Amino acid sequence: MRIKQLKYYTVLVFILLLTISGFGQDRNSQVPKSRILFIFDGSQSMEGYWEEERKIKIARDYLIQLVDSLDGVGNVEMGLRVYGHQFEVPPQRCDDSRLEVPFSEDNGKQIKHTLRYIRPKGTTPIAYSLEQAEKDFPECKDCRNIIILITDGKEACEGDPCEVSKALQKKGIVLKPFIIGIGLDPNFTETFECVGHFYNTPNKEKFKQALDVVITKILNNTTAQVNLLDTYGQPTESNVGMTFYHHLSGTIKYNFIHTLNYMGNPDTLTMDPLPVYDLTVHTMPKVKKDSIKLTIGKHNMIGIKTPQGALKFTSDNSSRYRNLKCIVRKDGSHKTLNVQKIDKKEKYLTGKYDLEILTLPTIKIEDVKIEQSHTTKIEIPKPGMLNILLSTTGYGYLFEKKKSGKLSRIYNLNSIEEKKSLILQPGKYEMTFRPKNMKRTMYTTRKTFEIKSGSSKTIRLY
Hints:
Blueprint: H1 2-5, H2 8-19, E1 33-41, E2 49-50, E3 53-54, H3 55-70, E4 76-83, E5 97-104, H4 108-116, H5 126-133, E6 143-151, H6 161-170, E7 178-182, H7 189-193, E8 197-201, H8 204-219, E9 222-229, E10 241-246, E11 252-257, E12 269-271, E13 277-281, E14 287-292, E15 299-305, E16 308-315, E17 325-330, E18 336-341, E19 346-349, E20 351-357, E21 363-370, E22 375-380, E23 384-390, E24 394-401, E25 407-412, E26 419-424, E27 427-435, E28 445-451, E29 456-461
Helix pairs in contact: 2-3, 2-8, 3-4, 3-8, 5-6
């Protein structure tokens, strides 16, 4: 019988207690605090009648019920800003807005008391009130800052509520505000929709419902799963990092490593449904999906194409090449995508890539194809060894001799020690050297030779 006597807003508290833990995925981290700032219209027009009662009474009574239900709930703090209640009109005071009750724990009684004694007097400075709200939220690195604006009129001063709201969100100060209109002209819809989530209420019953909906959205959990789609449109890709950013501010909201659950399906995430997200999946190259909006209270499917295959390069003589690396670039791009070590398999998005294997000389391979769930293997020819013996220091170059007969410099011999060993790919080479103490060009020594796989060659330079 007692449960039946509980008011609707008290039931919402149970929803909060049961679900608020879902706003953080890290079990060891604290649940983010939700800070709700009510911006209440105390302008002259709120004295007007709405149905059979004054607007101020209807809005105040329902808001007091809501505040009463939230007072003392853990991880929720409230604040109250009121505008249009300090100065009579005329004249119009566009700075008539004040934080009446700052954020603190268990301040519900103070908010209710303040609401009971508001007397509508002045104008409607909505943009100014939103702008001032930035200072109402004390600094907090892990808080959800929410504004609920209750008004019966549109901006009466020269401010632009849309631009102010956008700036607040872009700075990461607040999530997208909620606006509850009290019997507003339907033509005002566009005016407020750019400010935030707008609910226009034609009567007091709808006003109560709007408050119910807003507070439920603020406190309710929302789930989502990210489907990393393969070439065939199936969500089989996984074990990839993915970051959710706030669309306007660019701040990081979540940073996960994707996984498939024990049933082989993408794991379920519990997320804050209020922000608009940009998602980056850290494949190579990375994939982005912008402006993701979650449907509150439902399980959301987020699909993004990330078809992947793998690349691995090896050599018969891996002992000589144990530290060998390969530069991987997207086909036709000069930008380095990854530097991959020999014998290590790496995943890439399907497509074509250009490789530059850092052997001596370098091996360049273009249009290497990566296919879905397939490992492309690159076999590096077995190298040979070049031993260089010197009796003096000097200046010189090692060239690769191309099939065209042209020379390509691959190594600088300047000031090397008496003995130097180089691991070279099979091929034809030429070396030039001039001792440092010889001041005439004609004393340049020239040697041509061939390196074969697994063989060793010694060159003496005097």
